[in-house]
Amino acid sequence: MKRTIILKVNSERPEADKIKAAAKIIREGGLVAFPTETVYGLGADALNPEAVRGIYAAKRRPLDNPIIVHISDKRDLYKLAREVPENIDELTRLWPGPLTIILKASEAVPRETTGGLDTVAIRMPNHKVALALIRESGVPIAAPSANLAGRPSPTTAEHVKQDLNGRIDMILDAGPTRIGVESTVVDLTSKPPQILRPGGFPFEDLKRIIKDLRLHPSVTADRKVYIERPPSPGMKHRHYAPKAKLILVEGRMEALADKIQELVDKYSCEGRRVGVLSTDENKHLYRADVVKSLGSRKDPACMAKKLFGLLREFDEEKVDVIIAEGVPMRHLGLAVMNRLRKASGFNIVKV
Ligand code: TXA
Ligand code: MG
Fold first, then answer.
1. Under CATH, which number does the domain 5-181 receive?
2. Which ligand has its closest atom nearest to the C-alpha of 55?
3. Residue 237: pLDDT above 70?
4. Which ligand is nearest to the CA of 81?
5. Is there a shared CATH topology between the 5-181 domain and the 245-350 domain?
6. 145 C-alpha vs ligand 1 centroid, how far in Å?
């Protein structure tokens, strides 16, 4: 066990002395969890193989799952990537933001960071603390979400502490993250370009910029699909899962509540403690041990922001089974449904 230092940092005006202390740890090969606009990341020097190995160990992450490299200056993209498309500015002008771009990796990026692939995932996060930390460190920062592998991503420093206290050197606490789901991952090395993970940057908006953009089939899959060579190794691992068993009920709004109550009654009768992950429109309809709402079905950004925190809350309340409502797949709802389906292990009931 190490001693994990936890520092509160001002999210708008990060204190220079705290950023300096964190950057020193990064430069010396240590691990610092820091806020981004999406979720908290677990950072290490992306060009230091040993430091990056430390990320895998702390998270218990499978070694073949590559890590996103975070930069603070768009020009750093050219140090990390090769064969950069000429029209890359159309995408990088969306930075800083919740968009990760996959390109062919340069020699500078160690295989620990790419998970042994010939590509690298790069993003410039839109958070003052993250940007200050990268700048002060003077190196690009490799950072997966700062949770134990398989657990819901952390949207507060408290979530990071729950998973990684004693396993990492420092946590920078700048309060809850603004978006709440991870970045959208777009692969520019495939033809046509494809989204490998829906996230904080909506597909509809990106499609307006990249006309032939498509969603990889796994993004919208509602059952386990066998992918011969997954373009994103993360696709094949279980994800975002609370400790409780999660069942997702999808389909017509009119039929959702009845089906969910039927399932609640069945599990309650078996003596299990049951939670419902609901929306504001339906939450008054359920009789269960715990009912929580993601917010209005008309507000996908709100649902995205609350998702991971609520999944963790169900675990704290020692729920055995969570029955979750499916939500519309538009805007950030696509990311929310993608996470819920994976969290359920594709245990999906259609109505
Ligand atoms: O919002 C985010 O993206 C957060 C914050 C911290 O920036 N990071 C994050 O990282 O969610 P992580 O490691 O939890 O998820 C990264 C995903 C994984 O599914 C991984 O397999 C995929 O991106 N990925 C990374 N590099 C890749 C590459 N070269 N090719 C294909 N997929 C890649
Ligand atoms: Mg993750």
1. 3.90.870.10
2. 1
3. no
4. 1
5. no
6. 8
The reply to whether ligand 1 has any atom less than 6 angstroms from the CB of 35 is no
| pLDDT reading at 242 higher than 90 | no
Protein fold of 245-350: Rossmann fold (3.40.50)
101 lines ligand 1 (CB under 6 A): no
Give the domain ranges of the chain.
5-181, 245-350
Tens of pLDDT along 244-297?
A: 999 999 999 889 999 999 999 999 999 999 999 999 999 999 999 999 999 999
Assign 154 to helix, strand or coil. Answer: coil
Report whether residue 38 contacts ligand 1, using a CB cutoff of 6 Å. yes
Outline where DSSP puts E strands in the chain.
Answer: 5-8, 32-34, 41-45, 69-70, 81-82, 99-105, 119-123, 141-142, 170-173, 184-187, 194-197, 214-215, 245-250, 274-278, 290-293, 321-325, 348-350
pLDDT 10s digits, 116-130: 999 999 999 999 999
Determine which residue's CA is closest to atom 15 belonging to ligand 1.
144
Which ligand 1 atom is at minimum distance from the Cα of 123?
A: 7
